[in-house]
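Notes from the pairing session

We agreed to fold both candidates in a single pass and log them together. This is the raw record for the first candidate, unedited. Please don't reformat it; downstream parsing expects exactly this layout.

Candidate A
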Amino acid sequence: MDISWFHLGLLVSTGFLAGIINTLAGGGSNLTLPALMVMGMPAEVANATNRVGVVLQGLTALLGFRHHGKLDASDTGGIMVPTIIGGLLGAAAAAYAPAGIIKPLLLGTMLSMALIILLKPAIVAPPPGTEPRKVKDTPSSWWGLGLAGFYGGFVQAGVGFVLLAALAGTLRYDLVRANALKMLCTLVFTVVALALFVMEGLVMWIPGLVLAVGTMVGSHLAVKFAIRAKPETLKWFLFVMTLCGCVAAMLT
């Protein structure tokens, strides 16, 4: 596929914004998927190609959080197990679900997250100095992470919000560390999905890599912002992004 200068600028700019949004909250694909489809890609090809940027953005964010000492790897095994199990169950359920269920589920999730942040902010933004819990010591985290994984396998869109609620709400990670672990979980999901899409021949590599340039730059800058920003700022950014997710769900 030939890429015009307009498409080049569109992919890089939307990728840049999506890299920031996905690293600090979630929902960046609401920008990148339409940008890819503007180029004439069918929805399934755009969905597959979009994962190239998501994977490289995730790697960039993880390296950045790790460099700043914000990637807590002490319990990644405990976090990943229920998340992956939930993801597999969600993907299996999606194969048999009615076609019309996705939009109400996405909208309901976004509205619920917005209300939680507004009415119970301590759930997603624990007070400073709160010590994170281990999955093995927090049975409720299995359900929270499993639900996040199920949602990710079932819908994918907006999974970052659900993962943040599970990581901050049940395990009490602050928003910076929760975002780092969210990126790890999302990266694992997406690598598996991308491999399947590649085998099906659905990935268009040149647009995907152009998009990835923008997502990587955006993600790199977002990590720097997250390290320096006040928790209150990150909380309100997350709130605004959930509202944007609600609007996107209603318009799709």
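Candidate B (folded immediately after A)
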Amino acid sequence: MTGAPPPPAPVRRPQRDPGLQPERTRLAWRRTTLASTVATVLAVKTSLHHGRTAAGITVCILCCALWLAFLTVAHRRIRALASHRPRTLAPRHATAAVLCTVAMAVCAAALIV
């Protein structure tokens, strides 16, 4: 009775039922893309409202480029979430989305000032 204890039984993880979570996440990405589009349109309107200056046109072009970059990341994520077993968001894609959002906020601050 002093023998070694029996090895633990392997733990079986149940299959994950994602339910509606991928759909909610996909809709959240779409809402965020819509908000980014509205912010870009307002930035373009603001930059061209007081006349065309080099700084205003530069910020306008930068906002449009950031919008396109964010749209690309969001579209890839929306397509990935449409699969049966969606993969997790890659860190580089998450970083790109965050950088686009922060850069857009910096551009908005530059337009207001």
